[in-house]
UniProtKB/TrEMBL annotation:
Listed PROSITE patterns: ROK
Name of the protein: Glucokinase
Highest taxon in the source lineage: Bacteria
Family annotation (InterPro entries): ATPase_NBD (IPR043129), ROK (IPR000600), ROK_cs (IPR049874)
Organism the protein comes from: Planobispora takensis
Family the UniProt entry places it in: Belongs to the ROK (NagC/XylR) family.
């Protein structure tokens, strides 16, 4: 192998996923390549674990470190545009040593190779964008992605480039306030987000939103439902998708509210950035095809576009979601290699 490479590293709460991209933009890894992240044990353990993931994926494709021009890193937030973890830490960064830690610089020093940073939502959004439009056309289009997981991540892509913002917090779609009239039932409490907001998109369209806000209410409307006996509540929330796939009425009510929330979020985006494409990612992408399409149709129904926008834009799913973060991180790194 005589070509130069970039490596993408997707750092998660339990695992690091890695991929390799050659100078022509071709991915050399077509499966999930994971190693434990040990992120909850702090930087002293997590940084060497990322180095191990880096060496492991190079070994997988028969490459050496000398061929690597740049490394793309993505992590969950909150973090600055340059990869400095918030001074308050975060869900995955609870260890005190993470607070204010410069993750990007630490990995760069460890590897001796330039490291390009994005948050995980932005990285997945970048990959979805490039996959949909193609490497050549990607720079001529824009997109907005919403990634439904424990929280609601996302990313805004303009002219093929991630919009990061002044503090690196652009694309935090989960914390955009959405209209709730007609989404909530008349007696349904206002949903609260872990960030402190009331009525933002994440308070509805996330696993946490199901656990804290949606499921407790709907169980009062469906007394005797089997999920009411499941403890803890987080486990019940994770089981909900299986019930929806089987046509459970209560589960479908909850996921319809989530789809409505995403549609209203995209409606805001339509009036703000007017993108060429809207992407939905997260657990729903991994669901049974019939439920996945039902959910996406509900998102479309609740995304209010003008006639001109309907002709110009598409609403679709993020593909290859388990690899999207690492692949997006690699694409971001490739774009920063001088003289390519």
């Amino acid at each position: 192998m005589d070509t130069w490479l970039v490596v993408g590293l997707d750092n998660g709460g339990t695992a690091n996923n890695a991929t390799v991209l050659d100078s022509s933009g071709r991915f050399l890894v077509d499966t999930l390549v994971e190693n434990p992240s040990f992120v909850r044990q702090g930087p002293e353990v997590a940084i060497p674990a990322l180095e191990q993931a880096f060496d492991n994926v190079l070994g997988r494709v028969g490459a050496t470190r000398t061929q690597v021009r740049a490394v793309g890193l993505d992590t969950p937030g909150p973090a600055s545009a340059d990869g400095v973890i918030s001074s308050k830490g975060g869900t995955n960064f609870g260890h005190p040593d993470w607070r204010g830690f410069d993750f990007r610089a630490a990995l760069e020093a460890r590897l001796g190779i330039p490291v390009v940073y994005n948050n995980d939502g932005n990285a997945a959004a970048l990959y979805a964008h490039h996959l949909h439009f193609g490497a050549v056309a990607a720079t001529g289009h824009s997109s907005v992605s919403a990634i439904v997981g424990t929280g609601l991540g996302g990313g805004v892509i303009e002219s093929g480039v991630v919009v990061k913002g002044a503090a690196g917090m652009a694309g935090e779609l989960g914390h955009v306030h959405i209209p709730l009239h007609g989404l909530l039932e008349d007696d349904q409490p206002l949903p609260r987000c872990n960030c402190g907001f009331i009525g933002d998109a994440e308070s509805v369209a996330s696993l946490t939103g199901i656990e804290l806000n949606l499921l407790p209410y709907w169980l009062t409307r469906f007394p005797g439902h089997e999920l009411g006996a499941v403890e803890p509540a987080g486990k019940a929330a994770k089981l909900l998708r299986g019930h929806a796939e089987n046509g459970d009425e209560m589960a479908l009510k909850i996921f319809e509210q989530q789809a409505m929330a995403l549609g209203r979020l995209f409606t805001i985006a339509a009036n703000f950035t007017d993108p060429d494409a809207y992407f939905v990612g997260g657990g729903v992408v991994e669901a049974a095809p019939h439920f996945r399409e039902w959910f996406l149709d509900k998102v479309r129904e609740n995304t209010l576009l003008r006639t001109e926008q309907k002709r110009a834009a598409t609403i679709s799913l993020v593909r290859d979601l388990d690899m999207a973060g690492a692949r997006g991180a690699a694409l971001a790194a490739l774009a920063q290699v001088p003289g390519r």
